[in-house]
Design brief:
By secondary structure, the protein is an alpha/beta fold. The protein has 14 helices and nine strands. It has two domains: 4-163, NAD(P)-binding Rossmann-like Domain (Rossmann fold); 168-290, N-(1-d-carboxylethyl)-l-norvaline Dehydrogenase, domain 2, CATH 1.10.1040. α9 (165-195) packs parallel to α14 (284-290).
Amino acid sequence: MTSPSASRTLAVLGLGHMGRPIARNLVAAGFSVRTWNRSGGAVDGATDCSTIAEAVQGAEIAITMLSEDAAVESVTFGEGRLLHSLRGGGLHVGMSTVSVALAERLAEAHREVGQGFVAAPVFGRPEAAAAKQLWIVPGGESMHIESLAPVFAAIGQGTFPMPGARQAALAKLCGNFMIAANIEVIAEVLTLGEKGGIEPERLLDMLTSTLFGSPVVKRYGAMIAKNQFTPPGFAMALGLKDMRLVLEAGEGSRTPLPVAELLRSRFLTALANGKEGLDWAGFAAVVREQAGL
């Protein structure tokens, strides 16, 4: 029997650490998938396309999973790009972590040409994407979000709908802010314990076995306790980018964010000291170094 998904054609633009496993899972779910990546690289079972326009041709849904605002803008706007190539009534699903301002701009631009836009950033590292365990935060018109249920089911474990694209983008930034803040606290606590004679892994085991057993604390705590930040699942430079976007959102709403200011400084210091090849949790090394470890 033919899968209902087989009648739906999706374009996936961006095959990085997150886009590639997303495309693979959509293929596995029975969707007809067309892919484009700036640096090439096909996905088994998908149609590899040399241009954005070719990838989007005939697709009812185009998914973008790109690194930053500039990349999303480059792929979306301009002749032969997504906005001008997606068919009328088509739907752009933006899964990138972008600024609140860009999410609003994308929603308006697609609305003006008779298309839909859903901001759908995700929580989860590449291994979660591969395992179809992403948490998805979609924001847009409810009918568009409802129509995406089979797509989201193929790549994630749950959704948390927001009123609009602006709120979805902001919710993702809030989440990344909290993750980075947890990394900072874990780094400070384990450094304090280590200087006082407690092995980092022993202290972490006590903390995660009692009051602080969240997945974030366990995952990043293990990385910090072992001082092991390669290979990177999320780049240091992207952490700096996200803190900049968090601070922009705070300034726009006149919300003081002193912890975000500290985190921005941590990322910047890590990059200035040659740690750009580490996972974003690697800024914990800055905390240890400043403590003389």
